[in-house]
């Protein structure tokens, strides 16, 4: 996808889209589009609810970093000491996709599906903004582990994740918003070690449905790459393409995440895209970076430019109106460099809550010990939990062998809150929320939960 845009209005003065030393954006912004989540959020009755503002300082690793290990480190592939972790699980990291949920709240109010698509596209990009400096490894969830984020009274939504498979690792996620949308997904993590870098490929489709219009969007995530996995300073890049489809209107958005290149003159972490209607007409151009902001420009006219060289397609030239900022990244909290570069939302995710399920990530003893700075105890507890999980897996293998010998069917592990179904839109077999969790929470009846910790 190659194109360039020509604005019909005088362009804004814009600085380079590169994070500054304060880890926050600056420049000309449309503040009405980009509200900031305060430390004190107000619920629907206007009562101020205070959330966490810091975690224990991160452990400082020796200069040799990953090379201090006796064997080559493979995050997500092999067990590591918690010294290389951050005190959040992968389920909590998945929940961080909702940091900019207000983009979807705003999309509900759009007058037409094309404008709504622009906000959905910005939301799909915003989920990567937390990854730019987050090089520590999240805890691998145990099979049956869950994580809830109940912000129904404060922010209008509640979210539930469950680890539904261990080999391969897969998590199911369901979010309901009383402001008019529902999101669900099942993500399976595949990874490839390439010597100097590790490619992380999230497999699975994300679904988003708006209640009033019935617009149903689907898309998939791009590839994340961890560079300098053995030697040097770790850094993360996102690359690939996202195609968002509205199944009701047939509108599409194609987004391209440009991989970093030392020899390229492009802005680092660049994202470009085009929103098209059902007839294939280009309606909006999307541009920005996945770590800082996204904006859209309404297309007035599109034309084919001259081909630069043989064998290459000519660029499409778009004449557009002035860009409109849809999303920008929130500034990180003070002292973020000593707190794993957590965002304000991430700082609240591991706060103890008494009424959550006993399988919730907040209840993980190794993760809690690490957050409290008890590194040795956390490592021992992590080993205990992993051995307990292996023992349960061996027991299931024996059950499966016995069932096979007797000619009986063996269903294997069955998730508690999700069930595997064929998705009618994509034809994929995926885990969908079957209900019951929030009712169990209201009754405080967790008798059906397994003992995993």
Structural write-up:
The strands form 4 sheets. Strands 9-10-13-14-12-11 form a 6-stranded antiparallel barrel. It has a two-stranded antiparallel ribbon with strand order 2-3. Strands 4-5 form a two-stranded parallel ribbon. The model is unreliable at 6-48 and 61-79 (pLDDT under 50). By secondary structure, the chain is α+β, with helices and mostly antiparallel strands. The longest helix has 31 residues, at 375-405. It is 17% helix and 31% strand. It has helices at 90-95, 102-108, 113-126, 344-348, 365-371, 375-405, 437-443, and strands at 3-7, 40-42, 48-50, 85-89, 137-139, 146-151, 157-165, 170-177, 181-193, 197-203, 206-210, 216-219, 223-227, 235-246, 252-257, 270-276, 282-289, 293-304, 316-320, 324-328, 418-422, 429-433. The termini are far apart. A hairpin with a 7-residue loop joins strand 13 and strand 14 (235-246). It is globular and about 65 Å long.
Total of helices:
7
Which term fits the overall shape? globular
Which structural class should the secondary elements be placed in?
alpha+beta
Order of helices and strands: EEEEHHHEEEEEEEEEEEEEEEEHHHEEH
As a whole number of angstroms, the C-alpha radius of gyration is 23 Å
Report the average pLDDT across residues: 85
Task: Give me the count of strands.
Answer: 22
Q: Which blocks of ≥5 consecutive residues have pLDDT under 50?
A: 6-48, 61-79
Portion in strands? 25-35%
